[in-house]
Structures are given as structure tokens and as C-alpha cells.
């Protein structure tokens, strides 16, 4: 569908709510209104199984009475004053938060760049069904694929409006297009499944559905007849899809909230070499057509690109206003809005690629484990201890020779980060983007 959400009414509602809160006795306040519409189509065996469309609006008012704060939300804003009075009354009886407050006025965004966040291409259920059917058909055509696990195509349009009592008013819209296919290979208890997908801001950037389906089928067939391997220490290459999880663990460890709570294994590592020389990790909220791109953060402030890791050295935490005040640091525009307030987090986080392909790295190693899938969440954020279930392929002479499963990889993330070598196959589509990475000498628990 081609409708583009008109945010003017939401902007009016948010402004009225801010005015009402000031009249009700708030010293400061902000209102955020979010809206969205989405459409998805699920296909199995060439037939549409489900079509789902959703729409919704939500407005949240946050008020400050001195250093006390409270938030209230509503789907319908019939009486702004009643909502504002309730929020102010709640704030007056809450404990003080010494770090609470709006962003400093000098940090507020004044100009909104064109970041190519919105695709106005017409999208209808029939078009989504055709994309999903094409992906499924291609997956089923792969020799060895015995059935479809289904295919899904989706479209979403989301908008946000933020108005504050100290003069900020801004809004933006973003679009998302997604397509995935799951293929099943083998029969009975020997069945294996795998998937492939794409996720883009602009429909024109999406990969060919047939390529997505074909890769899903090929991945499923490759997984047939997996074997267990004996417990050992081995060289490990994380496929790009799996390597993103390592970057995600890093993002959690450099989150300002974790640093303030002293629950991060990197809390004493600022300014230190935690990766090998040459490693670069960048977070960029202004990346054009990026999956997590935004012109302003949840406080209305500018977030510029940050070299989180430069030449292997840790340079920044992710900070919003509250965590920066608590830590005595300058905020860096990483406030995410959610629930009753903000919390810091990454935007478009990218591990820069290396010079060698994954195949070249495996050839240099000779033998080892290629990890294609990880299971569970076995990471201790305080110590960095790492233990994840995994599956993939054992390789010899640089070539995969046997599918393996039911194994566990263990180590410590500080040590793993220090020995990480990125490959050249960066897939930059997603909000957390990483190439394949090699880590030598990890413990593998098998039979």
C-alpha cells in the first residue's frame, strides 16, 4: 500500500500534552508519539497461510518535578489535562533520581538531514505473496530439499514524534521490507532445516527472492548427516551470520547502563587495547538507508558516527543523558526511547572487514570448525565467560568436509576479542553488521 502516515495530528497531540503537563505543575516534560502500520504474508506449499495487517498509535508523557519523574501512556488522547495531572501526581510521590532530566538545550537537533529512511513504494498483500512464493519455489527446487518450512514477506512503516518542554519538536518516518524462506532437507529423524533472509529499508535494494530461497535450500542440504566431534581445542571461524552475535555481546558490554551498574566485563577497559591492532568498530546513526538510522535520538539530540574501537582500542561507551550524568561523561546521542524513559544503545554498529576471504582464512588454518549457527545465551556479562551451543562444519585443508552439531564452544570474550581476525565478507545490511571472523584455539566440548 502506498499510504504515508500523516504525522501532523500526532505532533499536535504531543504538543498539547506538553502544554498540559506544564500547566499541571511539571518543571519539565516531553511527549513521544509512535505510530505504525505493517503487513505480512506467510506462504507454505505455494498457498497463502496467513495475512496479517496491524496499525497502532501510542503516546507517552514523561514529566519531571524537580528530580522526581514519572511517565504515563495512552492509545487515545481525549483529555490531555487529565493525563498530565495524573503524571505529575505520580512524579510527586516517587523517589528522587539525581540523574533525571531532559537533554541540555545545546545538544538538541536543529537541522534534520535526508537519510533516505522512507520508501514510498506501493506494497500490497498480493505483491508480498508473490515474493514469498518465488522464494519458496526456488528453495524447493534445490536437490535434497524435501519440504518447505514456509516463506514470509513483510512491509512496515513506522513513525515517531518527539516534543519537549524546552523547545524541541521533531519527527521521522521509516520503512522496512523483509523476506525469508525456511527449507527442510532429509526425512524422518534425519531431517535438517535452515533458512535465508533479507531485510531492507528500500524494496529496490532487496535481493532476488529466488536467490534467498535457493540459499535456504542449499544450507539445509549441507546440514544433512551431522556428526559429533570429540572434545578438543580448535581453530574456529564464525560465519558472518554467527559473527554478528559476537558484536552484539560487545555492544552489551559497552552500554552505559551496564557500566554504571558495574555489570560489564569491559567496565575497566576504556582506552585499552581489547582487540588486535587494526580492528575498527563504528556506530553510525546517520548511515543512509541503514537499518537503525535516525536523525535524532530518544532525547532529541544529535548522534554522530563514533569509532567505538579504533585500531583495537576501546574509545567510547553508548551513553544517553542519564548514564552520562551518572558516569560524569559527555553524552553521545545514543538514547533509545522505551517504556518510562530512555536507555542507551547501539544504532548501525559495524565491524570493519579484513583483507582475506573466509576461504583464505580456513586454508591458512588447515583444519578447524566453521560455525554457522549458535544456540542459547550462555554469556556472563560481568565476567565475559562465554559458552554457546553451536553447529556448522568441520573443515580440513581449508574445505568443509563434515557437518557437525551438538557441540559447545567455550572461552572468555576478552580473550576472544583479542584474538579475533575479521574476514573480507562484510554484510552491511543490518543494524549489527560483521564479516566472518577467525578465532584460534577455542575450547570445543563434544563427545
UniProtKB/TrEMBL annotation:
Name recorded for this polypeptide: TldD/PmbA family protein
Source organism superkingdom: Bacteria
Domain Metalloprotease TldD/E N-terminal stretches: 29-91
Record-annotated Metalloprotease TldD/E C-terminal domain positions: 232-446
Disordered, as annotated region: 328-354
InterPro entries: Metalloprtase-TldD/E_C, Metalloprtase-TldD/E_cen_dom, Metalloprtase-TldD/E_N, PmbA, TldD/PmbA_N, TldD/PmbA_sf
Family named by the database record: Belongs to the peptidase U62 family.
Species of the source: Roseibium polysiphoniae
Residue span, Metalloprotease TldD/E central domain: 126-224
Amino acid at each position: 500500500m502506498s499510504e504515508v502516515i500523516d504525522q501532523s495530528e500526532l505532533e499536535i497531540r504531543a504538543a498539547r500534552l506538553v502544554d498540559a503537563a506544564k500547566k499541571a505543575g511539571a518543571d519539565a516534560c516531553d511527549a513521544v508519539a509512535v505510530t505504525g502500520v505493517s503487513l505480512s504474508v506467510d506462504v507454505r506449499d505455494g498457498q497463502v497461510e496467513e495475512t496479517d495487517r496491524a496499525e497502532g498509535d501510542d503516546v507517552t508523557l514523561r514529566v519531571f518535578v524537580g528530580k522526581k519523574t514519572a511517565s504515563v501512556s495512552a492509545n487515545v488522547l481525549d483529555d490531555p489535562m487529565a493525563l498530565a495531572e495524573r503524571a505529575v501526581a505520580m512524579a510527586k510521590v516517587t523517589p528522587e533520581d539525581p540523574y533525571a532530566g531532559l537533554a541540555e538545550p545545546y545538544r538538541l537537533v536543529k537541522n534534520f538531514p535526508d537519510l533516505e529512511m522512507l520508501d514510498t513504494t506501493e506494497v500490497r498483500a498480493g505483491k508480498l505473496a508473490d515474493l514469498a512464493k518465488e522464494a519458496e519455489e526456488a528453495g524447493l527446487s534445490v536437490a535434497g530439499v524435501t519440504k518447505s518450512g514456509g516463506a514470509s514477506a513483510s512491509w512496515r512503516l513506522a513513525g515517531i514524534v518527539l516534543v519537549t518542554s524546552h523547545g524541541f519538536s521533531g519527527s521521522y518516518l521509516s520503512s522496512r521490507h523483509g523476506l525469508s524462506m525456511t527449507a527442510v532437507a532429509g526425512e524422518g529423524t534425519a531431517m535438517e532445516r535452515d533458512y535465508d533472509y533479507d531485510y531492507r529499508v528500500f524494496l529496490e535494494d532487496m535481493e532476488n527472492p529466488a536467490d534467498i530461497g535457493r540459499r535456504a535450500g542449499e544450507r539445509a542440504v549441507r546440514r544433512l548427516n551431522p556428526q559429533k566431534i570429540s572434545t578438543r581445542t580448535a581453530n574456529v571461524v564464525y560465519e558472518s551470520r554467527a559473527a554478528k552475535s559476537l558484536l552484539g555481546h560487545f555492544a552489551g558490554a559497552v552500554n552505559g547502563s551496564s557500566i554504571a551498574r558495574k555489570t560489564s566485563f569491559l567496565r575497566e577497559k576504556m582506552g585499552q587495547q581489547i582487540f588486535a591492532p587494526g580492528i575498527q568498530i563504528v556506530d553510525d546513526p546517520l548511515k543512509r538507508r541503514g537499518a537503525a538510522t535516525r536523525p535524532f535520538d530518544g532525547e532529541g539530540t544529535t548522534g554522530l558516527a563514533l569509532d567505538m574501537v579504533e585500531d583495537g582500542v576501546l574509545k567510547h561507551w553508548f551513553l544517553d543523558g542519564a548514564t552520562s550524568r551518572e558516569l560524569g561523561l559527555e553524552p553521545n546521542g545514543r538514547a533509545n526511547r522505551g517504556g518510562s524513559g530512555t536507555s542507551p544503545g547501539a544504532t548501525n554498529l559495524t565491524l570493519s572487514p579484513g583483507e582475506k576471504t573466509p576461504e583464505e582464512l580456513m586454508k591458512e588454518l588447515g583444519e578447524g570448525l566453521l560455525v554457522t549457527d549458535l544456540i542459547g545465551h550462555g554469556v556472563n556479562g560481568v565476567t565475559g565467560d562465554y559458552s554457546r551451543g553451536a553447529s556448522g562444519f568441520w573443515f580440513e585443508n581449508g574445505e568443509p568436509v563434515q557437518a557437525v552439531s551438538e557441540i559447545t564452544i567455550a572461552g572468555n570474550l576478552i580473550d576472544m576479542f583479542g584474538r579475533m581476525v575479521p574476514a573480507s565478507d562484510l554484510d552491511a545490511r543490518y543494524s549489527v553488521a560483521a564479516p566472518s571472523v577467525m578465532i584460534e584455539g577455542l575450547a570445543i566440548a563434544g563427545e
